[in-house]
Amino acid sequence: MADLKPSSDISFVEIFLCSAFAACFAEFCTIPLDTAKVRLQLQRKTFASEGVSLPKYRGLLGTVATIAREEGLAALWKGITAGLHRQFIYGGLRIGLYEPVKSFLVGSDFVGDIPLYQKILAALLTGAMAIVIANPTDLVKVRLQAEGKLPAGVPGRYAGALDAYFTIVRQEGLGALWTGLGPNIARNAIINAAELASYDEVKQTILQIPGFTDSAFTHVLAGLGAGFFAVCIGSPIDVVKSRMMGDSSYKNTVDCFIKTLKNEGILAFYKGFLPNFGRLGSWNVVMFLTLEQVKKIVTGQAYYD
């Protein structure tokens, strides 16, 4: 993600809608990878009498293949409705609020290039604010994705996204919709900032290489770089967030972190790293390319600095 500058003739509502559409489109294209990532993150070591049994899900392609074989292709899009809810709210707000927050931080009279640390701070704030509002959609999405194949005759916990919202409130209380909010705020704020800074730096580095221009191919490479950097930083928080949302037995964030570390070791926090990178890298590429085109349609001028 770069320093997105809305032109003077585009409103906050237009920026929000452009960003929300691009985020939803990227979500639809990449959610099978996210489903695989969630299954890998929630998978725990199981012990048989003779030792450790083999895990059910192994690797990105293996997980995708297992889900498709056992549950059907449609299972790879489990949670898509809640995912679209999330991206419409979170994706629209984090980008739509970025420019106003950044301008507020530097002041209306500021002239020149905005310092990198101000961009990072603005992205941290917008990521945190957006996910506070969107957390219920994230919770429902993870709950639906986490549910695997059930025995014949056994109904699922939820009939769909809307049923999940009402069921969670009825059975667990309204506050349950904000389960995992702490690690979710940390994850999204950090990843949002990582994407902002790394996209800009990777893009500028690529543009210094002879033969490269500010083209779609450059945006693809920069998006992959941003995704990789964001996953390296955010994966441990993402695992804790997914586990807290998928399993209500944890007391709090610290309890989930300690139990995971004690029972499975430090590498457990990087479970699903490759599908997470595949998901976040491809998500960034699709989202930014789509956003640029949608803004061109709306304003006739979409650009990155």
Question: Describe it for me?
Answer:
This protein has a two-stranded antiparallel ribbon with strand order 1-2. It has helices at residues 12-42, 60-71, 80-96, 98-106, 116-146, 161-172, 181-207, 216-246, 253-264, 273-299; strands at residues 47-48, 51-52. The relative contact order is 0.16. The protein has one domain (12-299): Alpha/alpha barrel (Mitochondrial carrier fold), CATH 1.50.40.10. α1 runs antiparallel to α10 (273-299). β1 and β2 (51-52) form a beta hairpin. The mean pLDDT is 82. The chain has 305 residues and is an all-alpha fold. GO terms for molecular function: amino acid transmembrane transporter activity; oxidative phosphorylation uncoupler activity. Solcar repeats lie at residues 10-104, 114-205, 214-297. It is a multi-pass membrane protein. Its main location: mitochondrion. Keywords: Membrane, Mitochondrion, Mitochondrion inner membrane, Repeat, Stress response, Transmembrane, Transmembrane helix, Transport.
Q: And the CATH topology?
A: Mitochondrial carrier fold
Unreliable runs, pLDDT <50, ≥5 residues? Answer: none
Q: Tell me, what's the shape?
A: globular
CATH homologous superfamily name? Answer: Mitochondrial carrier domain
Number of strands: 2
User: Helical element count?
Assistant: 10
Percent of residues in helices: 55-70%
| Main sheet characteristics | 2 strands, antiparallel
Estimate the mean pLDDT confidence: 82
Overall number of structural domains: 1
What is the CATH architecture term?
A: Alpha/alpha barrel
